[in-house]
Amino acid sequence: MHKSQHSLPALETPVFAELSSFVAIAEALSFARAGERLSRDPTVLSKRLRALEARLGVRLVERTTRSVALTEAGRGYLERARTILRSIDEADREAAQQASGEPRGHLRLALPDSFGRLWLAPMINEFLAAHPSITIEAEFSNRFVDLVGERFDLAVRLGELDDSRLVARRVANRQRLLCASPAYLQRHGVPRRPEDLADHACLVFTGLPNRDRWDLSDAQGRIRRVSVSGPLVADDAEVLTEAATAGLGVMLGTDWLLGKHLQDGRLLRVLPRWRPLDEGAIYIVTPSGVGAASKTRAFGEWIAARLANPPWKSAPSRR
């Protein structure tokens, strides 16, 4: 469990004290740990929680001598309470930032693994050099994080989005394409139709919805679904890229990963008129419900400006 980022307002009014205590208890599921988090005696937090429940007329927490659990009403109230406390925190920081004239504070970022390491990490370094009053905690992972529940300020996501709790900004297109090494194509020939892929060694990424089938479409909207197989199946696209450059087969990958290999000729596009159906895009996303802090806006604008003309774009060779 992450340490709470919600601090009590300087003027500890009963309502805010009750709200902060409830959030700490709900997140820690322990009066003792919540007391440590807020530097308060657990009995004080227990009294505040009882006062809050009495004022609302509903039980928010079920507690026994051994455990603490949220009620259904408590789970719903927690979401609203987090939003309120976060708004207060951000309002305080926004006011403080006006004095210095520059964004400041701590940013928690959720970034995709390979894409983040290849393209976003250098941008983060440049951003920190330009904004010395900001610190960053970045998680590089392909897991689908809960921005609201885990209190991330911003995430970069690839593909399609369906979380209505997020504010999404599309900052770049993502193009999927088929490619193979010149050596592979010389040995095995160049696929001329999607159906030809069934007779080729294909390098299969397990992260696709249908890993053993590639769904392709042309400019006229015709769709071909081709069953594929080959010598290597992996959940890491970089591993498959290395296999493709080694001449082991045809790969279905993204332009941001394959761009440099296409530029230097280690890989060549195949079936360029046929494109996968699930291309998606690259998004900057933030939690909805509160206005983004200036530190978050500054980082989002920094990344969006640098992805406006994606550095991996090229005019690759076509076969």
Q: SSE layout and pairings?
A:
Layout: H1 14-28, H2 31-38, H3 42-56, E1 61-63, E2 68-70, H4 72-100, E3 105-111, H5 113-130, E4 134-140, E5 154-159, E6 166-173, E7 176-180, H6 182-188, E8 202-205, E9 213-217, E10 223-227, E11 232-234, H7 237-245, E12 250-254, H8 255-263, E13 268-270, E14 275-276, E15 281-287, H9 294-307
Parallel strand pairs: 3-4, 3-5, 8-11, 8-12
Antiparallel strand pairs: 1-2, 5-15, 6-15, 7-12, 7-13, 9-10, 9-14
Fold and architecture overview:
By secondary structure, this protein is α/β, with parallel strands linked by helices. It is built from 9 helices and 15 strands. It has a 5-stranded mixed beta sheet with strand order 4-3-5-15-6, covered by helices on one side. Strands 11-8-12-7-13 form a 5-stranded mixed beta sheet. β3, α5 and β4 form a beta-alpha-beta unit. The longest helix is centred in the first third of the chain and has 29 residues. The N terminus and C terminus are likely disordered.
